[in-house]
What we know:
This protein is of the alpha+beta class. It contains eleven helices and 39 strands. 48% of the residues are buried.
Amino acid sequence: MGSLPALDQPLQYEYPTACRDDSVVDDFHGVQISDPYRWLENPDGEEVREFVQKQVQLTDSVLQTCECRPKLGQKLTSLFDHPRYSTPFRRANYYFYFHNTGLQPQSVLYLQDSLEGEAEVLLDPNALSEDGSVSLRTLCVSKDAKFMAYGLSSSGSDWVTINVMHVQNKNVEPHTLSWVKFSSISWTHDSKGFFYSRFPAPKDGESVDAGTETNVNLHHELYYHFLGTDQSHDILCWRDPDHPKYLFEARVTDDGKYVYLNIEEGCSPVNKLYYFDLSKLPSGLEGFRNESSLLPFVKLIDTFEARYQPIANDDTVFTFLTNKDAPKYKLVRVDLKEPNAWTDVISESEKDVLKSACAVNGNQLIVCYLSDVKCVLQVRDLETGSLQHQLPIDIGTVNDISARREDTVVFIGFTSFLTPGIIYQCDLGAQIPDMKVFREIVIPGFDRSEFHVNQVFVPSKDGTKIPMFIVARRGITLDGSHPCLLFGYGGFDVSLTPYFSASRIVLARHLGALFCIANIRGGGEYGEEWHKAGSLAKKQNCFDDFISAAEYLVTAGYTQPRKLCIEGGSNGGLLVGACINQRPDLFGCALAHVGVMDMLRFHKFTIGHAWTSDFGCSDNEEEFQWLIKYSPLHNVHRPWEQHPDKSIQYPATMLLTADHDDRVVPLHSLKHLATMQYVLVTSLDKSPQTNPIIGRIECKAGHGAGLPTQKMIDEAADRYGFMAEMLDAHWID
């Protein structure tokens, strides 16, 4: 690979010219904002298809020059080719788990009649499409394990179609349920049917290509489906036409007596919680079939002031995980007979965040705390909350606890930066919990002793200490010579905890790169106060934190700006887009996946309205003033015109999106791509912008979920091959 091009010999890229319609101007509270690429919002437009095709051709021409890309593809293929397993779960006398032999497009669902019994395939999603684009998105097995309801997604879309299988003979019911999105599935204990949520079907004459449409998702509804009947006979259990943005989810309690209704309006950690006593229907839900009213839910929590997550119940006595008056969460209890008398079971920790609690073995809890972004597992008494045992786990992430209250044996999924995956089997029937390795994922050729993980705390612009993990080969010299990948998210109460990534291990091993995760504000790493400190009017803190992390990596001698790549997806794509606008001089490369780039119009498409809880909304004048200051689309500029160093340009940038992303619809990336190319290159006779600005647009894929293995490998090889070329990183055998 050659060195970076000299400034007097810039690489030339043939950027397509995109039509600009300067007549499109919106008035935001007296401020005129032009939107010349509004036409890119139409996913069915012929001119949009032409734009995408030309961008694909440009990107392909750039990727063909990336010397490391083929080697990355080969190495990633060999590293992915190893057996992977999920934690098993038990229903009745059966165990269920997912397994992938290595390069299968989708993982396969298996069934066993005991942990030692022979496993048989229950459902293989790979048999449902030739290209692996149909994925299993959700499932629920009835309490008696006779039936399984499962949701299938095509091409990564959030829309799912629910099917029902008879577990014993694997026969699939002829009736399917459509227009299902953002739904759980929960069987009643009589196995006659299940609760699920859906949106209204399109009206007659409306043409909808599910997955590529941009129509706003409104009027979620809760239904009950009876086994063996057509969807048209389902019972409408709850709706709220006065609040079209509400989302509903129903779950039946472990004792089968109650169904509780979770109501959310946005993505903030707050919800309303209603319940209904199923035993009050003498003829069951069948007797309610002809009623014209909704299920008479009782309103336990009817304000959006905190999160309430049910953990267990003993008849009318319920235990909840909540952040009510406890930003780091606590466990509380209430008797439905006295709904105003709440008591604490586990008080809020002074430092650590109570992330989850699982009722097991009758009267015990397994609780997971997050302590400086590392998981801590404990066994506690369900009634008193008192600590019984500390479970021994390494520094890393507990990604699954599989057990119900009736189970004595618990399965715990664990991962870390240097641990591909361990499933522990914990027997709580013993006097001291017995933790043993049930399954461990082993990757041939991966030696964890070659690498080192360090956690540092970086002061942000306002002095707040930001945790950051740094993964690198052992014994590196801090001389600023290393390629570096910095990843972040910072939103929606999401915590970025240590996890294994085969592709990033390849970067460390074969490109000599560092991989870093910055736990910036906006996430949930330190509870709700940390989340709020990076949202709404304080969103700029996210960008300041990420920029401070990047500056630390430079000043500490890990890397230098031209060797530093930043990466993020979804809200993290917004993060990348905002940071390259604010500090283009600090980065050599940027990878923004499925980013929210148009902060003035995001709420107008699919489920975007739910994000106003974190971002605000341009319909509100005060919130418009927050958004316009950092919206990636509206802050692209020519840095050489403002910077004393006239050679400053934007880093090499790849915007990634997919045609079936109906979460953050592709128009965000397409409009941003057209804007960057116009402002930085095509509108100028001679531009200092020699770093490429390209878009990778995937077909038959969505926001990320359900991506077939080969597409994962191809995408990783493309984006990291691009990164290697732009950072002048060389392959090390």
